[in-house]
User: Which sequence fits this backbone?
């Protein structure tokens, strides 16, 4: 828990209910133990994408498509979202959800390792969301920054790992090694010469930065 129980409950109680499709995706995620983005963090991404007028978005880690759907719904009709996923079953499930969500034309779901796929992309992108394997964040960030236009936004999930990153020790299944890797990534992200960023305690910790 990153914020107090009372704050967490209040935020959950005041949040609008998800629509039927998102609720189904969230239920499936819980049932199948698919790690999906915290609901409040997902709303934050949608708001930020709309506020920045993002037209081209790139995402690492589709899973079954919860964060992808929030981002896709923020795009204009001629917008484009490229999202990478390496798990075939999750990718297939995401494809079927997107066929139902009426945003499939805007979404390019790639069953491909992001480290490989990012090298094939041409920028500029307006927004990037990193939510793949935490140990690969640093490498993915270095591939993504050159694809972003100046002023573009980059968001990264799980940068606080249930609070373990702030405490600098293993908590809640996040091992000491993973915590150390996360702290090193956060230092790199916040000190990146091309980014101006911060860490927010939304969800499991979302880091945000604007490209200079
Ligand atoms: C935390 S989940 C993503 C959750 C999703 N963004 C959401 O909010 O619903 C991370 C996903 O990244 C995928 N993944 C891990 N490493 C990857 C890589 N190198 N390239 C593409 N996908 C990767 C995993 O298979 C997993 O489904």
Assistant:
């Amino acid at each position: 828990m990153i914020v107090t129980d009372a704050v967490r409950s209040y935020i959950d109680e005041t949040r609008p209910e998800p629509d039927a499709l998102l609720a189904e995706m969230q239920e499936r995620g819980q049932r199948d133990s698919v790690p999906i983005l915290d609901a409040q963090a997902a709303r934050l991404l949608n708001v930020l994408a709309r506020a920045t007028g993002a037209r081209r978005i790139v995402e690492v880690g589709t899973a079954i498509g919860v964060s992808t759907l929030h981002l896709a719904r923020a795009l204009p009709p001629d917008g484009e979202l490229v999202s990478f996923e390496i798990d075939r079953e999750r990718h297939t499930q995401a494809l079927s959800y997107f066929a139902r969500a009426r945003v499939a034309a805007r979404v390019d779901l790639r069953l491909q390792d992001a480290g490989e796929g990012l090298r094939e992309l041409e920028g500029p992108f307006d927004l990037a969301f990193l939510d793949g394997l935490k140990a690969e964040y640093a490498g993915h960030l270095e591939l993504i920054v050159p694809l972003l236009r100046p002023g573009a936004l980059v968001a990264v999930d799980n940068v606080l790992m249930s609070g373990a990153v702030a405490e600098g020790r293993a908590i809640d299944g996040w091992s000491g090694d993973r915590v150390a890797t996360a702290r090193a990534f956060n230092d790199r992200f916040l000190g990146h010469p091309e980014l101006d960023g911060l860490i927010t305690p939304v969800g499991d910790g979302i880091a945000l930065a604007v490209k200079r």
Notes: Residues 35-37, 60-61, 63, 66-67, 84-87, 90, 113-115, 131-133, 136 surround S-adenosylmethionine (CB under 6 Å). Residues 52 and 126 are 8 Å apart (CA to CA). The longest helix spans residues 176-190. The mean pLDDT is 96.
